[in-house]
Amino acid sequence: MTTSLINTKIQPFNATAYHNGDFVEVSENDLLGKWSIVFFYPADFTFVCPTELGDVADHYAQLQEMGVEVYSVSTDTHFTHKAWHDASETIKKIQFPMIGDPTGRITRNFGVMIEEDGLALRGTFVINPEGEIKVVETHDLGIGRSAKELLRKVQAAQYIASHDGEVCPASWQPGEETLAPSLDLVGKI
After folding, report:
1. How far apart are CA 81 and CA 188, in angstroms?
2. Distance CA 186, CA 87 (A)
3. Fewer CB atoms < 10 Å away: N or C end of the chain?
4. How far is CA 17 from CA 26, 68, 71, 94, in A?
5. DSSP secondary structure string, the chain?
6. Which of 4, 67, 81, 78 is nearest to 37 (CA)?
7. How many CB atoms lie within 10 A of CB 105?
8. What pTM did the predictor assign?
9. Contacts of 12 (CB under 8 A, 6+ apart)
10. Contact, 65 vs 91, CB < 8 A?
11. What is the residue-averaged pLDDT of the chain?
12. Of residues 31, 49, 68, 99, which has the active-site annotation?
């Protein structure tokens, strides 16, 4: 049985990331004041991971336009992230910080550590500007994630954050109707 992280605050952390040719320090404070995605993956130089990270990189400009920063995290070091960035055409597209978590502290904080392997599950977390986790998605290692669907989830989270009393139905897209839960809707949907 696991405890949900939904609506909990992110826990403190300090780490080094590879970002745009430099090593930079990142902490939970960097995630405050804007929407953030923390995107865990098992390891650099693997198979499904570069397809996911490349997909997020292809949607990064749109996420930035929405005021969202992306942080990818694996239990590799920031040095390994740089080496992978330098070696892979797909990973060279990444413009968001790639956080190294060799101690596993961040990975454990988010509940996605595979202890026996020292690797992260495929975990995705959408965090609001107040540092509260609003979306949690965890996948088995063999199941890749879709940046397009992640984008839709962020749009829905942002929409309901700014439209009190409304909710987004399944497959909702920006511009479509939302719902305002009420007694009148019970049994009508």
Report:
1. 51
2. 55
3. N
4. 7, 17, 9, 12
5. -----TTPBPPP-EEEEEETTEEEEEEGGGGTTSEEEEEE-S-SS-SHHHHHHHHHHHHHHHHHHTTEEEEEEESS-HHHHHHHHHH-HHHHT--S-EEE-TT-HHHHHTT-EETTTTEE-EEEEEE-TTSBEEEEEEE-TT----HHHHHHHHHHHHHHHHSTT-B--TT--TTS--B---GGGTTT-
6. 67
7. 16
8. 0.95
9. 27, 28
10. no
11. 96
12. 49
- Kindly tell me if the per-residue pLDDT of 162 is higher than 90: yes
pLDDT in tens, 33-89: 999 999 999 999 999 999 999 999 999 999 999 999 999 999 999 999 999 999 999
| CB contact at 8 A, 37 and 4 | no
> Edge to edge, what strands does the sheet with 22-27 contain?
22-27, 14-19, 98-100, 68-74, 35-40, 122-127, 133-139
pLDDT at 3 over 80: no
Closest CA to 104 of 119, 117, 116: 119
Residues 6+ apart with CB under 8 A from 127: 10, 31, 35, 36, 37, 38, 133, 134
Whether 168 is catalytic: no
Distance CA 46, CA 50 (A): 7
* Diameter of the chain measured on Cα atoms: 58
Find out whether 42 and 121 touch, Cβ atoms under 8 Å. Answer: yes
